[in-house]
Amino acid sequence: MTETDGYGESSTFSTNTTSTPVNAAADLSITKSFSPDSVIGAPPGTTTMTLTAENAGPSEATNVVVTDTFPIGLTLIAAPAGCVLSNGTYTCLVPENLGVGVGWQFDFVGVSPTGGSGVVTNSASVNSDTFDPNFGNNTATAGLTVNAAVNNLTISKTLNSQSSTISAGEAVAFGFTVVNGGQQTLHNVVLTDSIPTGFTPTCPVGAVVVSCVIGGSSITITLQNLDPGDGKGFVVAESTDPSMTPTTATDSASATSLSPTDVVVNSNTATASVDVINDPELLITKSVTSTPSAGQPVNYQVVFTSLGPSTANNVVVVDTLPSNLTATELAGVIPSDCSLSGYEITCIIGTLAPDSPVTFNFQVPLPPGGGTFVNSVSGSADNSQTVDASTTTTVAAEPFLAVSKSVSPTTAKVGDVVTYTLGVSNTGIGAAHSVVVDDNAISNGLQLLSSTAEPGTFDLTTGTWTVGTLAPGASSTISVKAKVLQAGLLSNTVLAVASDPVGTAPSKSVTAVLVSTPATQLAYTGGSLQLMWSAGLVLGGLGIGLFLFTRMRRLAKR
């Protein structure tokens, strides 16, 4: 090669060429990670292990291979394509050359060791046929944190009532809620509830309850499985003993899981309280069970009941008899468990269960003069208010009528006028009102002619004597003249009737007999006829006597 310098001189040079071979180089690197990088061991947690190979150049990498020794205890669920397991090591081939700036990713899905805890460490490496000038980034390590399962079993208990106070004998309900706040499913969750004295539970029903056992002073309930975050609720109804003494009853419950047995329990006990009082509602009634009559015993009935819900304690019934009865008249028939003192009958009942009424019947004689009698009764118990009842009985003094009737003369002939004397008197202790005397003379061969009715009036057409009112001990008499219309034995009856203040109708009747003969027979003086007439009188007298005897027996039976 010839060159000319600045001075015009030329120089000639000669050169030699040398070739140096340069090898391809690819700086490969690998990264490794777990997502998530923290899981629980029981139940096993799932994680994804990601391996990423990259080529920083300057040359393309050929036959890239990624290897990973799978962690002990980590169970593979899914391996990516192109990976082969041999002796616990996965070998993964990148399916094509890895260009400069290009990466390739392998994802492994696995689950954590069952029941284990700690950190699982795992390393992976990348290589290729291409020279790698930097081996320091060809290996990567990542750790998976395996945590012990956290189980949180929570129970709550509430009183399902608008009031925190109930009466003994009432029912009450408690609500329960059991929640799994942990990270794994709980099996065989058992709730045990202690039952206070005097309470009787009933097993709850529903889909959440698997079984229920009541024994002694507790109730044991097995629930369905509880998944993480799941809760189960149910209600236990409990009845109470009506005879409970007042108290504050505290009901405690606890919950456990039988599987798994290593449950970490938080707030697994709960309590609820209810105040129990004993306040029965009492009812007392009093009635007269017989028709009261002056001078006769009256029957009283007392019924005492605890309407509940609680049992009444130390029950006493006191019946106060009317003060207008004398002491001797109080000695009536009273129950054997009652005692009489003055005007009071006291009955000791003791304990009275709800809806178990007790009945007392007793008898008290009423005075013959009648009157108004107020009978009061009260019932009391140590744990309730006193209740009262009364009955008022009004009994009027009763009248008693007596009547009389006679005829003069007792023997007459047809056409004669005879005189009947009628009398009525009140021998009772009460006034007789609306007294009426009926005479049946019209239908017995007589014609009524006149009367001397004082007081009252006498109706000659009907034979009715309207007397009016007869005071106790009063009497009235009238005379009635009648004409004999037929011959024979004329039986003539008079009946007295009155209506008294209490609605009964005391009445009495009496019969007068008149012997009547035809006028012609009375004028005949023959011996044989006279004998026959005498015999007739004797026989008639016997008939009259028999009639009067029978009539008096009937009156005596009234």
TrEMBL record:
Keywords: Membrane, Transmembrane, Transmembrane helix
Alphabetical list of Pfam families matching this protein: DUF11
Residue span(s) of domain DUF11: 27-142, 153-274, 282-387, 401-503
InterPro entries reported for this sequence: Chlamydia_OmcB, DUF11_rpt, Ig-like_fold, OmcB-like_DUF11
Segments passing through the bilayer: 531-549
NCBIfam families cross-referenced by the UniProt entry: B_ant_repeat (TIGR01451)
Protein name from the UniProt record: Unannotated protein
Species of the source: freshwater metagenome
